Each structure stands twice: as structure tokens, then as C-alpha cells.
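The instructor's notes for this session suggest beginning with a concrete chain rather than abstract definitions. Hand out the sequence below and ask the class to guess, before any prediction is shown, which regions might be ordered.
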Amino acid sequence: MRLLFFLLTCIIWASDASAQANLYTNPVFIQQLYKDAEYLSLKQRVSQEFAHSVPGHWGEFVKGVDEDFITQNKVIAFTFDACGGKNGSAYDAELIDFLNNEKIPATLFVTGKWIDANYTTFLKLSQNPLFEIENHGFNHKPCSVDGESEYGIHGTKDVPDAFDEIEANAIKIQKITGKRPAFYRSSTAYTDEACAKIARQLGITIISFDVLSGDAVPNTPKAVIVESVLKNIKPGALVIMHFNRPLWNTYEAMQEIVPELRKRGYTFSQLQNYPLKGKLILSYS
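After discussion, reveal the predicted structure:
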């Protein structure tokens, strides 16, 4: 009887999880938001406020974007993106297991698309106190108010589209996990200054990075990733990596990076535990 009860419980839980997953898939969820008066009202206010905003600088490091900790101590943050989509919806279980086994706190930036492809895994990750869940965009688009593109990826076409990219995924993550993300990293990490202001209006800080690991380039050798991180590391650095590319040597590189950083006296933290800052970007426009 106990075994039967256990099996029935598992079946019911799996059924509930499946139903919830279907409810939160991007196409279904956005239609729900478009019927939500509060969401539409906020979208209208933001769209009107920024309707005539100039984009400003476009890039990974623009005014209003944070990229490292304010600290003199040897503490850094590993941040990992999960992009989703046709070729970006895999899951690097070996990497996550390594972080778990080594008790390394990390910040995970996830898109709505990646959540759709990995709902049960996402739920487990969100319940693990080692991992801070943050926003990588609803549809994994660079954040732009005028349709800028980067690396062949078309950005959001206007202010309402940028609003959906940021806010829809923030609400989706909050609905699933119970916690609203405080940070957002745009697809490719490229954004414009107007989007940084829009995010701030929504209570969200756009995050870039301080150390580029290079693991986003297909089949980058492990040695290159290791060197990229160790050569450029410094107190307060935010390292950008990925946990949706299990064949691209991130896990293999981390096996060398972590022991070496510990040998140098570094410790690791989530983003939420330290104040953040960005570069001073001077505008001459």
C-alpha cells in the first residue's frame, strides 16, 4: 500500500508540474499578461514616458549598466546564462553538479525560452539556496528601443517590445519561484542607455560583466577559457559563463579555474550580496 501511495503521489505531482509548465510557456503566458489590466497599465505608462527617448550608446558597457562588485576583498561572482531557443536549450548538469559539490554560490540568468524547455530542472535550481535566479529576457533578444542587432540577433524593436522582454520574464520568474528577479542581463549583454533607464523604472538593474570567459564561442578550448578568466580576474569581478552548453568546455574549465582561484585566496558570492557598480561612461551627445 505504501508503494502504491508513493507511486500515486509521484504521478499526481508530475501531472501538476506538467500542467503548471504548460501554463507558463511563453506563448500562453504572454497572452495572459495581455489580458492583465495591471500589466497593460504599467506597459502603457512606461511606453508613454519613454516614447521619445533617444537610444544613447549601444554596447555591453553603457551608462546605467552594472558590471562588478564594490569591494576591496578577494570575492568574485560566477554568473551563468541560459539562452534557450533552437540551439540554446540544453542543460549542463555536470557543471551544476560541480558547483553543488564544491559549494560555490552562483547567479543564473535564464530566459523564458530556456525555462519552457527545462521547467522541472528550473524549479529544482530555483529551490537550491546556492543559486540566485535572475532574468535573461523573455525571448532572448538584445535590449534596444530601436531594433539594434548584435551577433545576428535582432533586438527588441521599440519601447513596448523592450518592456515585454524585461518585465514579462521578471513576472514569469516571480510567478514560478515566488521571488522577483532584481537583475537583468540582455541577450549578448548588449543594450542601449534607454533600456537601462526602462529597467530602472521597473526596479531592475541591467547587468553586464567584468571578465569574459569566452565559453559562448562554440568549441572554445578549455585552456582558452581558463586563461581568459585567470588572467583577468580581480576583486569584485563578475565572470560571465553559460550553463546551457554542456559540450562547450565550461565545466572542464571550471575544474581548473576554481582550485586556482581558491589558491589565490578568492571566495565566491551571488550578485545580491554586494553593492554593484558600472564604468563611468561619458556622453558627448
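Then share the key points. The chain has ten helices and 15 strands. Residues 2-23 form the longest helix (22 residues).
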